[in-house]
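User: For my dataset I need records formatted as: sequence, then structure tokens, nothing else. Please produce one.
Assistant:
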Amino acid sequence: MDVGEVLTRVHHEEWARVVATLTRRFGDLDIAEEAAAEAFAVAVERWPADSVPPNPGGWLTTTAGNKALDRLRRESKRDDKHRQAHMLSEQTAGFREPPSAVADERLRLVFTCAHPALAMEARVALTLRMVGGLTVPEIARAFLVRETTMAQRITRAKAKVTAARIPYRVPDAEDLPARVDGVLAVLYLVFNEGYLASSADTNPIRADLTGEAVRLTRLVRELMPEDGEVVGLLALMLLIEARRSARVSAHGELVTLDQQDRGAWDRGLIAEGHALVRERLTSTEAPGRYQVLAAINAVHTDAADARDTDWSQVAALYDQLVRLDPSPVVALNRAIAIAELDGPQVALALVDELAAPLADYHAFHATRADLLRRLGRSDDAREAYDRAIHLTGNAAEMAYLTRRRTELAGA
């Protein structure tokens, strides 16, 4: 395998573990991230000449640890001598971390980044960077904000973690309810980035991120087995992950849900997801956002053919979801369901109402282009396709939208 491909794969697989290990060892997110980045930079320089080491993750962790120690020694000569000396003595004596309910470093890092002392957007952004290994541009696209804005947000969040002395651990049982909402939010966004990567420089679907998000959500469920939203999020992830192998064609083009080979779906994951949805249906508690999203995906995956989809049930669930989460993105997805029930003209009117908040969201323009195409408004559809193509960073989605636009031009 090409060394460049190995480096990309190792970065995806090892970034969070290296950062988590260094955070536990040195107690500083900024030091951990900088040292991890330096270690990967050294790997880019050395591995093509020296060959890939037998244990890439161990090599990176050791190199990053040395880089962090070098930085601490430099800084100890300035104004933080006591703290750095304490860290160095821990490293020499053999640091023992405090006991935790779950012995998983990356989950501890998630809880650290999702601490309630941080604003929710800062929690999500910091976790995407530190745990997901996403770049600042990728995170900025997920939030629909400028890169400079996101960089400042992440920097402030790391500084606050240090200043507030936020511990690197899974919280005690009594503290979990106050923390779980932020944890679920970041795990969902990590999963979404894997489901449809926002950068053209990576794989269209990042199985490393979706798989890690599922794994961590399973661990959260072990901590909080009775929490409906934890169960709902796990069900949602499983039902989406089950379709992964059918979502990109052999030519590298996104395959929409109605065109996917349903025989290629993972029936084991679907059965598990459906069982979790049914489990929540027996509860007397009102469902939350993730439970409703899981139910929507259960309807989709229950249909043997796209034509068998119960769109009235999907629309009713979206009506429920809009009341829980009245965001423009949810309204956009509801409009797609309405198009199947009441036609593209009705749906287009709903979509056009979202133009202001979703002006820079590629899915808004892609949805609008499809509705305009179905209405025979080719010139308007072509313009909407152009805008969607310009805004998307996903190579597979770009290929799909480009083909649809080309077919429109031919027609």
